[in-house]
UniProtKB/TrEMBL annotation:
UniProt name for this protein: ABC transporter ATP-binding protein
Keywords: ATP-binding, Nucleotide-binding, Transport
Pfam family name, one: ABC_tran
Protein family: Belongs to the ABC transporter superfamily.
GO MF annotation, one: ATP hydrolysis activity
All copies of domain ABC transporter, residue ranges: 5-230
Keyword Transport included in the entry's annotation: yes
InterPro entries the record matches: AAA+_ATPase (IPR003593), ABC_transporter-like_ATP-bd (IPR003439), P-loop_NTPase (IPR027417)
Annotated organism of origin: Streptomyces sp. R44
Length: 300
């Protein structure tokens, strides 16, 4: 299997702050990957490492088989759209395309011009006069016209209205189909990711909490409901991810590679959003518990 990204023991520290810790990943080629997690858990750091914009403190990372940013050829193979879909406000649409042609050896002018026409963007309009959705589409077009093998997006649609978001995601998937490009997409919008992603990575507290193919992850996660005490002794191989209890009832989110035994009558598969939220909640709860423990130890 070919991987577009491989990380082993990957870590990044800024001064005393550990932004990413012991990250181990293998992302297969040809996937649309959703990278999710709360603010401050290392998503932008991981994407910056993948683009070669920053260097790791620990461990290794390979993108398309090479060290990120190792050469001009390597840079040409990766398209990156940073947060807020940056474009140059004082440059026209045409000037963005000319700059793209000058900087990228595999630039596809025909593709770029066709997409600009489809978007009804005027070549003589400055980027600063465009709407947020139009700027996002311009940034996407410039990134795709590089003819990269991997497209990386850091929260590209966070500031867009629902209609502009839908248009952006639709055009992104058209590029995926046309170019055969792999995609890593960071976003808080779980509904958007559920519609387009076939692989997901969940980060929490600077660590990988969950990673894998969407279909496999959905198939392996269940919500179990039973009377209080009935779910205390689960069979081996069932991992409890999250649990909640009332005076009468227990509700568990669990992961199991094998089908849930028949004696557990109320067992239902989760959708992807519920799976992601369960791991994010577990990470957040572990962080709170860890902080409380540190406070207690400091007081002693």
């Amino acid at each position: 299997m070919t991987f577009v990204l491989e990380a082993e023991g990957l870590g990044k520290r800024y001064g005393r702050h550990q932004a990413l810790t012991d990250c181990n990943l293998q992302i297969p080629a040809g996937r649309v990957v959703g990278l999710v997690g709360p603010n401050g858990v290392g998503k932008s750091t991981l994407l910056g490492l993948a683009c070669g914009l920053i260097q790791p403190t620990e461990g290794t990372i390979k993108v398309l088989g090479n060290r990120p940013g190792a050469s001009a050829e390597q840079l040409a193979r990766v398209g990156f759209v940073a947060q807020d879909t940056p474009v140059y406000a004082n440059l026209t649409v045409a000037e963005h395309l000319r700059m793209g042609a000058q900087l990228n050896p595999r630039w596809d002018q025909t593709l770029a011009e066709r997409r600009i026409r489809q978007l009804n963007l005027k070549l003589d309009h400055k980027a600063g006069s465009l709407s947020g959705g139009q700027r996002a589409q311009l940034a996407l077009t410039v990134a795709a016209a590089k003819r990269p093998e991997l497209l990386i997006f850091d929260e590209p649609v966070a500031a867009l209205d629902p209609l502009a978001r839908r248009g952006f995601m639709q055009n992104l998937m058209e590029f995926v189909a046309e170019l055969g490009v792999s995609v890593i997409l960071s976003s808080h919008l779980l509904g958007d990711l559920e519609r387009v992603c076939d692989h997901v990575i969940v980060l929490g507290e600077g660590r990988v909490q969950l990673a894998g193919e969407v279909d496999d992850l959905v198939a392996e996660h269940y919500r179990l409901v039973g009377a209080l005490g009935d779910l205390d002794d689960l069979p081996a191989g069932i991992e409890v991810i999250q649990e909640g209890h009332t005076d009468r009832q227990s509700t568990l989110i669990v992961r199991s590679a094998e089908p849930i035994p028949h004696f557990i009558t109320e067992a239902a598969h989760l959708d992807l959003e519920d799976v992601i939220l369960a791991y994010m909640s577990r990470s957040a709860n572990a962080s709170v518990t860890g902080s409380a423990q540190q406070i207690r130890e400091a007081r002693q």
